[in-house]
UniProtKB/TrEMBL annotation:
Pfam families membership: AI-2E_transport (PF01594)
Full protein name: Putative ATP synthase F0, A subunit
Annotated TM spans: 12-28, 34-58, 79-104, 176-199, 247-271, 277-296, 303-321, 333-366
Stretches assigned to coiled coil: 370-397
InterPro entries: AI-2E-like
Family: Belongs to the autoinducer-2 exporter (AI-2E) (TC 2.A.86) family.
Keywords: Cell membrane, Coiled coil, Membrane, Transmembrane, Transmembrane helix, Transport
Main location: membrane
Membrane topology: Multi-pass membrane protein
Length: 398
């Protein structure tokens, strides 16, 4: 009777989940709109939590390695988290300022150089095509097309796009001001919330445990705590190892490009380091962008840059990152690709960034569950390997 009840309970769960999934897909647009509104409302708090998580990484370092050794007395120990938080925020803001001061001027310079050299590049390309009999007709057509383009009209169209067909600048200015104001308010609220979270993180942790252990039985609460701890360690180790690995890659690219006398060294180093946070897709995008910019300057140096960057990325991917990360992520390559694809398709760039640590958490939990189930069934890992190596053929009986 007990087994029957368990079966009925499992069946009921499956039916309920199936109904929920069905209605979710049936009303997918309404669900999507509802989620969009909900996320928009809680956006400052989400950003605040993300900021708190990022700032907490250097804050932990300052607490353990720096200020705990300076403030040793009972009276001064209270200053440890305060000074750690201030130092972490200074470091964070300093990083953003350096990034903007280095990258923005380089982008401006690169775009200016691209605009100035592009017509000359087109002329050189057409001359090159004219020298070849097979491509001469194509070159003539391209030249006619370029000459036929009314560049003044193109400029007017671009201007109309930004100003508007009716030239109503007031509406667009108002829209921009509203957008900027909304962004500033969101960032300010998120920053204040993150500071509040970091200052009260110990009290918030105690409060969270009080809620969890009061709502759930001990074993379930322990499991929730375990998942929370695993989630934090997975995200923290991924961000730490990836940030350091990307920084080293950026330095390698910068030094290498200076030695090889390839232009846009600083811009390439920053772009490659940032793009490296998005596995597979990020480095590809950074490579294509920099190759186009360098190609306008010098096609040969563009090829040299490609070869050099591929070597640098191989060194980083095969030696530097594994040495830093070790087995902290513990996710097979195939699941990395799958997680990036799913995360990117659902949530874009943000999805790609968080997909790997989330997949790592799910993969770890799934493996633990399978290990427990196999242990109950008394099936060893060696038996699984032996069964996997065997191929069974069943002959059809006549």
């Amino acid at each position: 009777m007990k087994k029957l009840d368990e079966k009925n309970s499992q069946l009921l769960k499956v039916i309920l989940i199936s109904i929920l999934v069905f209605f979710a897909f049936w009303y997918i647009e309404n669900v999507k709109n509802g989620l969009t509104v909900f996320i928009a409302v809680i956006q400052p708090f989400l950003i605040g939590f993300m900021l708190a998580f990022i700032i907490n990484l250097p804050m932990n370092f300052f607490e353990r390695k720096v200020y705990s050794k300076i403030f040793k007395t009972e009276k001064t120990k209270k200053l440890v988290p305060v000074f750690s938080l201030i130092s972490s925020w200074i470091l964070f803001i300093l990083g953003i300022v350096i990034f903007l001061n280095v990258l923005i001027p380089r982008i401006s310079k690169a775009v200016t150089a691209l605009i100035e050299r592009f017509p000359l590049f087109l002329d050189d390309l057409i001359d090159l095509l004219n020298k070849n009999k097979l491509t001469k007709n194509f070159a003539d057509d391209a030249q006619k097309y370029i000459n036929s383009v009314d560049w003044n009209n193109v400029l007017v169209q671009v201007k109309d796009y930004f100003v508007g067909e009716a030239g109503n600048i007031f509406d667009k200015t108002t829209s921009i001001i509203n957008s900027v104001s909304s962004t500033i308010i969101t960032i300010a609220a998120a920053t204040i919330f993150s500071v509040f979270v970091l200052i009260n993180k110990k009290d918030l942790k105690i409060l969270a445990n009080r809620i969890i252990y009061s709502l759930f039985k001990r074993s379930t609460a322990d499991e929730i705590n375990k998942v929370a701890s695993l989630s934090y360690s997975s995200f923290a180790s991924y961000i730490n190892s990836k940030a350091l690995s990307s920084l080293i890659l950026g330095i390698l690219v910068f030094v290498g490009m200076l030695i090889l006398k390839i232009p846009f060294a600083a811009m390439a180093a920053i772009l490659v380091a940032i793009a490296d946070f998005i596995p597979y897709v990020g480095p590809l995008i950074a490579t294509v962008i920099m190759m186009i910019l360098i190609f306008i300057e010098s096609p040969f140096k563009s090829l040299v840059f490609l070869i050099f960057l591929l070597i640098a990325q191989q060194v980083q991917g095969s030696i530097i990152y594994p040495a830093l990360a070790g087995k902290t992520i513990g996710l097979p390559s195939i699941w990395v690709i799958v997680s990036i694809a799913i995360g990117g398709s659902l949530f874009g760039i943000v999805g790609m960034l968080v997909s790997i640590p989330i997949a790592s958490i799910l993969y770890t939990l799934m493996n633990e569950k399978m290990d427990k189930t196999l242990a109950k069934k008394e099936i060893s890992e060696n038996e699984i390997k032996e069964l996997s190596e065997k191929v069974h053929y069943k002959k059809e009986e006549k």
